[in-house]
Amino acid sequence: MGHSSAKEFKAARIAVLTVSDTRTLAEDTSGQYLVDALTEAGHSLSDRKLIIDDVYQMRAVVSQWVASEEIQIVLITGGTGFTGRDTTPEAMRPLFDREIEGFGELFRQVSYQEIGTSTVQSRALAGFANGTAIFCMPGSTNACKTAWTKILQEQLDNRHRPCNFMPHVKP
């Protein structure tokens, strides 16, 4: 567990995207969990969308968010598995200026404690695009809880030491 300094907390401006061919916003417990968790932590929800698992729709939505000065962080849930429709990694990688390899690695490591070897079927990933950090996680609510509580909650807090992602995103 990291350290926190005496710095004043600065809320991040975060957008949440759910990728699903079967859910509606009303049924989106994963996206709703992320919205609740980020607002409870003191961050600001800038936008929220649910779209089908389509490479070009994902790129269009995320490209608009990346171009916006109003959004610093994008959280994507869904589309990271191995079915023919799971295309989040393929949609996001071309947008990245730089990949954050450690996010997927750490996500699978902490997931292993919860779901064992099934974690190898997760293609969780993250990267930076135009000063926006993009985190892609599986579509299950439990996976989103794991990602938030074990990684993102600390890494999106500007007070977390020895380092966090906030100095690397657009102001």
Automatic annotation (TrEMBL):
Pathway: Cofactor biosynthesis; molybdopterin biosynthesis. SMART domains: MoCF_biosynth. It comes from the Bacteria. Pfam families: MoCF_biosynth. The keyword Ligase does not apply. Residues 15-159 form the MoaB/Mog domain. Signal peptide: none annotated. Keywords: Molybdenum cofactor biosynthesis. InterPro entries: MoaB, MoaB/Mog-like_dom_sf, MoaB/Mog_dom, MoaB_proteobac, MoCF_biosynth_CS. The keyword DNA repair does not apply. Belongs to the MoaB/Mog family. May be involved in the biosynthesis of molybdopterin. NCBIfam families: moaB_proteo, molyb_syn. This is Molybdenum cofactor biosynthesis protein B. It comes from Litoribacillus peritrichatus.
